[in-house]
Amino acid sequence: MEYVPQNSQTSQTSLQRRKWSTKEHIVLISAWLNTSKDAIVSTDQKAGAFWKRIVDYVNASPLLSGAVPREWSQCKQRWGRINEQVCKFVGCYEAAVREQASGQNENDVMKAAHDIFLNDLGIKFTLEHCWRELRFDQKWKSLAVPKEGPKEKRKEAAEVVAEEEGADVRPPGVKACKAAKRKRQGYDEIHSMLAVKKEIQQQKLLERLLAKDPTHLSANEITLMDKLISEMI
Fold first, then answer.
1. Based on CB atoms within 10 Å of each CB, which residue in 5, 10, 58, 173 is the most buried?
2. Could you tell me which residue ranges the Myb-like domain spans (predicted)?
3. Whose CA is closest to 2, among 42, 41, 52, 37?
């Protein structure tokens, strides 16, 4: 049985006219992607139940806290517009990539794609934020890849040279050698201090053992005392 929203006759006109914010678009796209890729529900369920899951996801999103809830028909209609325009822009973007001149970068390609969209459809493409959310998904992924601009190429070339010359590492400078030497000296001093501290502790332990009556010493204490005496000698 298909989902039928309650109070669907109430304020339908005013709800349809309420503009969608960028944040609402992002949440709607996330809801559609998550629901359509759910192996259990997917699109095998009836359309009403499918869009009920989406509208529940949208209205429950903490990103839209305080916003007026949407109805499933609104989400379905808005998604249809997003999908249609993004698909058309993908074609414009690929055309712009193919026409990309030497020295142009990603910003130049995007501007050309917007110009192509405007010339072909007679309207501006205002859903670039939606395209950026969907551009790497399989359905909207562009096969064309823009060329890198001069700065990016120089940077990449410099990184390649650095990797190739990685084996020819420069020897440490004078300051680095002095710093390493001071670090080693610090370790040596700490080691010496710990050794002195351990020796003092052993001396105190031996003194306590020697102060006891030999007849009252346990076998372990006698063994420990002999060990301490031998180490100190």
1. 58
2. 12-83
3. 52
